[in-house]
Amino acid sequence: MTTALPRKPAHHERTSPTRRRRRVSWSLITAIVFAALFALAAIAPGVLATDDPTAQNFADALQSPSLTHWFGTDEAGRDLYSRIVHGTRESLLIGIGAAGIALVAALVLGSVAALADRVTASIVNRIIEVAFAFPSLLLALLLVSILGPSPWTQVVAVGVSTAPGYARMVRGQILSAKNAGYVEAARALGHGWWRILGRHVLPNAIRPLVAVFTMAIGQSIVWASGLSFLGLGVAPPSSEWGALLDAGRASILQAPWLTFIPGLVILVLALTATTIGTHIQNSLEKGR
Amino acid sequence: MTPTSSSEARRADRITSVRPVAPRRSPRRSRRLASNVVGAVVVLWGAATAAFLAQMALPGDRATAILNIRTGQAQERTPDELAPIVDAYGLDHPVLVQYLDYIGGLLRGDLGTSYQQFRPVWDLIGEQLGSTLVLTLTGILLAWVLMIVWVTLTAGRGPRVRALGSAVDTVTAALPPYWLGILLLLFFGLTLRWFPVMGGSGVNGIVLPALTLAIPLAGFMGQSVRAEYERALDQPFVLSARMRGMGDLGIRLRHVLRHGSIPAVTLTGWALGATVSGAVIVEQIYSRPGIGKTLVSAVGAQDLPVVTGIVVLVAVLYVVANLLVDLVYTLTDPRLKTS
Amino acid sequence: MNAPRTRRTLAATAAAAALALALSACNNGSVTVPSADAERVDGGTIVYAHQQEPQCLFGGWIEQAYISYQFLDNLFSLTEDGEAVPWLAEDWTVSEDGLTYTLTLKDGVEFTDGTPVDAEAVAYNFDYWVAGGNSTAAVWLGGYYESAEAVDDLTVAIHLSRPYPRFIENLTQGYFGIQSQQALETRTDEENCEQPIGSGAFVVQEWNRGENVVLVRNDEYTSWPENAEHTGPAYVEKVDWRFVADGVTRVSALHSGEADAIYDIPAIEWDGLDGEQYELHKYVTPGRPQQISFNTTRAPFDDENLRKAFIFSLDRESIVDTIGHGVIPFEGNGGVSQATPGYSQKAADWYAEDIDEANRLLDEAGWTDRNSDGYRTKEGKTLEVVFPYNAGTIINADGASIFQAVQEQAKATGFKVDLIPVPPSETWAGTYSGPDSYDISAGYWTSVNAGILYINWRPSTEDDPNYSNSAFYDSPELESLILAANSESDVDAQNALYGQAQEYIAEHALSFGLYDRLSTLGVNPRLRGVWQEHAQGGPTFYDAYFVE
Q1: Is residue B164 less than 8 Å (CB to CB) from chain C?
Q2: How far apart are CA B157 and CA B152, in angstroms?
Q3: Quick check: bond before A208 cis, omega within 30?
Q4: Backbone torsion region of residue C325, taken as left when φ is above 0, otherwise alpha when ψ lies between -120 and 50, otherwise beta
Q5: Tens of pLDDT along C48-63?
Q6: Disulfide check for B179: which of A89, A263, A269, B190 has CB 3.0–4.6 Å away?
C-alpha cells in the first residue's frame, strides 16, 4: 500500500529561514479541523448526526444527496451521512488498534535488530527486510484465513503486516542514536549500557514515533477498509467505511455516491493523518 | 533490499553517513550476497513452518469444511461421509509426519492439494501467476512513466507549480486502491465504455487495472524522487550543462533524472510488494483472473494450502527479486562505486 | 506555498466529484434489435457471463448442475407443466408394487469418448452417485434407492426399497447427468472434475480457472430431449461460459455487447434492461424458498406463541417488494415456493403483519418489561434472537438487506435480533449448524417438487441423523403426512397431502417464507433460442442461435 512509509521530504529544505517562520500552514489547519471532526464523530456521533443510522425508510431508498440527506440514502433508505458519522468510531478504533499493534511489534523487532548480538540481529534483520518488501496484503490475508474474518482479525492482520516497515524505522533510529556522539561521551564517562539505553538511546529513538503513529493510523484505516471491501473484515450492516464502500458497489450505476463518498472520507482521513504526522515529524527535525 | 538510502531511514542515514561506511562495500560484496542467501533460506524455512502451523491451527473440522464447500450445503456430517476426505488429505496422520511430508513436498515443488479443488496447489497457482505478474509489471512500468513525466514537468520550477506537483503526489499516494479502481471502472469502463468491463487477457483489458495500480505508486515514488530531483537540479553539473547550451528538457531527462530517480530504484523491491497487494484488490474489482482472486476466495473458504502455497511461493520470488535489486543498485549508483 | 496547494487539491477533488456524478448519470445507449424476420446464422460463439464458478464441473451444488447440463444428458427432461419427457431414456414402466422402474434407453447414443450409452453405464452412474459421486443426487435417492442393473443393452432396472412416485421427475435435475463409465473408472478424480465426459450437445474443451470454461459443439450429437426446439447438433460452435462475480459488471457487459447473455440480474437493474428491449427470463425456483426456520429446541422459540409473535411482527411483503424492486417474488409459505407443484396458498396466507397480536402474545408469555434500548426483558433476560446467515455464499447482498430489514422490524415489537454474517469459511466448517448455535436460520433448497419437504422435515434420529432439518423439529405427525404424500401416486391426492404438510408447518409456526429464489437471464436480442430448463432454471444453449 502506497502510504506505507511516512516519507514526505521536509519542506524547509526549499524555503529560506525567514519565510518559513512567517507562513501559516493552511494544510495543517485544514488537517487539524478534519481531525477534530473525526474525533468528535468517533466520541459523540450524535452531535454531528442526529438521525438514526440504522433507521430504514423504504420510501426514501436510493436518493441522491440533498438538503434532507446530505450524502443521500442507501437501498434501504438509511441516511448515508449518519452511517458514515456513526461508523467513524469503528473505523478509527480499528485503525488505531492496528497502528498500535504495528508500532509495538515494530519496537520489539527494531530493538532486537539494532541491539542484539550479531547473529540474532542479522537474522531478525533479514526477517524484517523480507517482510517489509513482501506484499503486506498477502500477510494480512494469511492471518485472516487462519483467524477467520472479523474486526479483531482485521486489527491484528493489518497491524502485523505493516509492522516491518516501522520496524526498519525503529531500527534506524536506535542505530543512529546508538552511534551518536553523546553516547560515546557517556561511555567514555563510564556509564553502563543499560543506563545509556534507557536514558538516551530509547527516548531519542521513540520520540519520532509519535509522528509515525499518526501516519500509521491513516494507513491502517485504508488497509483495514480494504479488507472489509474484500468481504474479509467487518460485514454489513456495520457502518464501517470499507463495508459501506463494498455495500455501495451493487448500486453503483444508480447511486454512485454510495461508493464515492465513503471512499472520499477514507481518503480525507488518510490525508489528514499524513499531514499532521508530517508536520510533527518536521517540527521534531527542526528541533534537533 | 537496500535499506540505507530509502528516506524513511534517511534521518538515521544522514547521521551515520558522516562516518565512511561505503568503502567497505565493494570488496565485501560477495560475502554480503552469500550472507543474504543464507539468511534467505532461513527465512523461507521459517515461512514454510509458519505456513504449516497455520494449517494446523485452523479452527473447526477441515474435513467437514471441505465436504460442505463441495456440496454447497453447510451442515454437520457423519463420519462415513468424511472418511474419503480424511484419507485423501492425510488428516489423521500424526502432526510430525504431516509436517515432514509438507516440508519434503515443498522441496520437491509440491505445495499441497487444495481443499476446495481436487488439484495440486502448484497447478492452481501456476495458471494464475502469469496474469498477476503481467499486471504487476505493467503497473510498475506505467507508474514509472507517470512519475517521470510529472516530476520532470513540475520539479524545480516556480513555487506554485512545485506546490501543485507536490500536492498531486500526496493526494494520489493516499488514494485507496479499491476506491480509485471502482471510480476508474465507473468512468472509463461503465460510462464511457472505452475499456471492456469483463477484464480478459487482452491489452485493452489491462489498461484500467494497471492504471489503478500505477497512479498511487507514481505519487508515492514522486514524493521521494521530487526532493532528490530538485537537489540534483542545483548541482554544478547542471549549471555547466546549461552553459553549454543544452535545453532544459534535455538536461532534466538526460542528467538529472538518473540522480533523481535513485530513491525510486531503491524502492523497486518494496514497490513490487505494494503492487502485488494492490493487484489482489484490482483483480477483484475488474474481474481479472490472477492469484489475487484465487487468494481472496481461498481465504474466504479457509483453503489454507492455497493461501500458504501462494505466500511461500511469493516469498521465494521475493528473495530472488531482492538479490537482483541489490545487484542493480550497487551497479547503477555512481556515488557508491566511487567512494 | 500551502494555501494554493490546499485550494488546488480541494478544487481538483470537487471537480472530479462533480464530473463523476454527472457522467455516471449519462444514459447508456440502447441495444439494436434485429428485425422480426432476421435470418439465422450458423456457428458463432456465445459469450455467457455466469456468476459463480464451481470447484468441479460436476457435483452436488446447483452451480455444477447448471454447467453440467450443457455437456451431460439426463435420462428425462422436465416440461413447463412438470411432466417428465424422454431424453436418454425413451420410455419407462413401473412395477405394480412401485419398487422397480424399468427404463428403455435410446439406441445408438455414444459418449464423446466413443463408449456407448448403454444400460450398464446408466446403472453404473446410479451407484456412482450414491457412493459419493454426487452428494445431492445421493440425498434425493437416499432411503429409496437400492440398486440398478442392466437387463440388456438398452434396458435398465432400478430397484427401490419404498415407492417413490415422483422418482422420474426428480431425475430431470442436472445432478443426474449421465457420464461415461469408462471415464469415471479409468481417469483420475481430477480429470473427471475438470472435464467430465458425457453425451451432451457440447463438450468441455478447456477450463481456465478464474476466467471461463470453453464448451465446443458436439458434432455427433444424437440425443436431444423431446422438449427441445430443434433436432441435430447445436447451432452455435462454441459457448464461452465466463465467470463474473460482480452483478454490475455482468449487466454492463451485456450493455456493451461484451456478453451475449448473462445470469443473475440484480433486481435494481431489471427495469433498465427491460426498457432497453433485452430478452429477460425469470424462473422462480421450485423447492424450499428462501425461508427462515426457528430452532424449536431452545428458548425463546421452543414456545410456539413466541414464534408466532415473531412472524406477526414482520411486514415481509413490503420488505421484499422494496428491496427486490418488485422483481423478487414475495413468498409467504415457509414450506415450498409458489413454483412447486402442490403449493398451498392457504399456508402462504396464514400470517400477515399484525403488530397488536404480536405484542399481545409476547405480553401473555411474560415478556412485559422493556429495557432502555426498547428490547423486551423477562426476569432480567433480554429477548434475544441469534440469527447467523451465510454471507456471500448462499445469501447475496439483496438477501442480506432483507434480513437487516427483518431485524429492524422485529425490534419494534421488542425482539433483539443478533444478525451475524457468517463468512464462507465458517459456513463450510459448520460453525453455525448445530442446535446450540442459532435461534433462527435462513436457507433455500431447489427441488423439482415438494419432496424436498421430506428432506427438510424428516425427524433426526440417532441411527439416521438428519442434518438438513434446520428447525430440529421432531414431529411424527408431520413426517407421516409427508411420507404419505411422497408415496401417493395420484397427483391430486398427493398435492392435497403436501398442502396439509405445509399448513401444518404454518400452523405451528415452524418456519416462514420470505422470498422465492430466482434464476434470471438477460439475453441480447441478436441471440435467440436461449431458454431456461424447467427443473432448476439453468440456461440451456442447445437451441440457441445468432441472427442478423
Answers
A1: yes
A2: 10
A3: no
A4: left
A5: 999 888 888 998 888 8
A6: A263
